[in-house]
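Researcher: Next entry: Ubiquitin-protein ligase E3C (Helobdella robusta).
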Amino acid sequence: MLQYDRKLIVHKFRLLNVLSFNPYFIERVWLLISSIHFKSVLNEKTYLLQWIARGSNLVGEDFRRIIPLVSTLSIIFNYYLLTISDAEFHGKRGTKKVMPFNNLQAVSQLALALRDFCLGVIELSHPESRTLMINYNRLSHNMATRVLSSTALKSRFTALTSPTAALTSQAAALTSSSPIPSYSERSIMRQRELLYVFKDAVKLLKQLYERDCRESYCPAGSWLASSNLYHSEKFIQPLSSTASVFVGCAFGTLSILNSDEASLSVDQPILSTSEVRKLIILSELPFVISFQDRVKIFHDLVRRDKMENQPDHAGLYGNTIIIRRNYIYEDAFEKLSPENEPNLKGRLQIKLINAAGLDEAGVDGGGLFREFMSELVKTGFDPNLGFFKMTPDKLLYPNFQSNLIWKDDYLKHYFFLGRVLGKVIYENMLIEVPFASFFLAKLLSRHKGLLDMHYLASLDPELHRNLLFIKDYEGDVLDMQLDFTVNYEVLGQLKVDELKPNGRNIQVTNSNRYEYMYLMADYKLNRQIRQHCSAFRAGLADVLNISWLRMFDHNELQILISGANVPIDVDDLRRNCNYSGGYTVGHPVIQMFWQVVEDFDDSQRQQLLKFVTSCSRPPLMGFKELYPPFCIHHAGTDLDRLPTSSTCMNLLKLPEFKDKGSLKQKLLYAIESGAGFELS
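Model: Predicted structure:
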């Protein structure tokens, strides 16, 4: 009752405070849930948690035995996890025993059981039957809510053609000529309880998954759904051709229970039951699908979007952008501004002007654009430009003092750089720009970019350790002589900001130290760079639908941006290599080249790849995705000449060396020193 009645919200939170900080109670609730069963006609035990995980329906009595307990566990355990650090979660030396379970293996088992439970609820609510096309209708004055048919299909649609709309999902209705059947209050409450328990369980599951992303405690691959159904080619197939939307399904979100009729749209495509399931999973539980499969789905969504923004009938070239090579960032900021280039999804043709003011030779067939984008990224995200700083681990995040350098225009630059990153991902380019994990998590956040204290370690490990020391300090915190302020330096002058009103006059004590910790973390992670991150995220959303990116966690997003740090598959590179200028696959020099590459260690192979393509990491889905394809061009017979490259064309210019030793020596010298590097 407390869970569903808003009038009792105060009592709910009082009870939460009592139950959530009792680890023993949390563990006992889980043990009770795990043990609830019924006996089959053969007198065999069937556990309700496993029964639901199979998508099987429950009779009323069994439903009431387990659903409220799962909801209770999800709420109190999630609430409790917010208060403990990653070090406490992992039971590291020097921390107190605070976890409700004996070991992390038990937590892992709980997480995976909860994963299967959530998948079962999705299946239970969307059985394999024909999806009825019905209208939302108001049921009664007492139950001021709306439900759908027996399939319980409730979802929201985000228009593919409007990336910024991805930040606020739009409700969609299914239409039919037949009226909705009447439902009893009991069936309505049952459906409502399913929605609540799904929301609560997913919230806990995401919290446990984020812990695993920051510091692993689950076996590799264990988050993936156990059913082969979710890893089949059928699952990752594109949506039906009429479904030109990406569904950010709100199944489990309270707002759909009383959607406003004015927000419903009837012009959305009808999806099959399997598509609805798929989109709920991708929206709420994407981590149960393999990363490779999600990348395929993401690329398909981008491909469909490109069909609208880069149509074949528009020809090979798009708008021509004139850029001075010595002023790449300045010119790009002006020419690619929203005023001059409102739709950055379209094709762009780059025309470079050299230092003498003359046009550089050549026509941009796509390669020059990619080289330009690579150089723009290097300049724009260079800490020396002032927009980004580096953490102690040399990872990038927004510089909160950039306004001192760029004055009133600084937010426009963050919006621009967000668009640049969006364009890079949109064009399936890889760039070696390492972002701080907390910054990527802010971009993916559904909560206005707000992060909790657990992410502070990726920004300022020393401050994070100091705050944990204050938390565990057994003496009198007053001895530390702290107040609710934060000090920082601006152009050599010490500045002071208050963490709360009148903070300079409030001392940190044993009773308010938790408030101090969370206010300090909030200041560093959120308040200090709120405007910077909001502008960057808005620019990113101007090119890419953020809800697509939410299929990935912050670690996976970095891989999507920079590629995976994996060994280079020489056989795959050879299969997808082109030859020109007289070289063929059977030419003796080409045969020697591949023998040399086989002899290279992985570090040398990465240097070779960076030398030719400007990125040391292979494409996510293999070298068949590299555009333009890796190509080896005949560069003459001058044996004193070093190999050179044209990164805009992914082209290696290789002289016709006479022996393997000379080829290896010259190639190594070129890739290790950058000698002979050419910009075309």
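Model: Note for the record: The CA atoms of residues 166 and 546 lie 6 Å apart.
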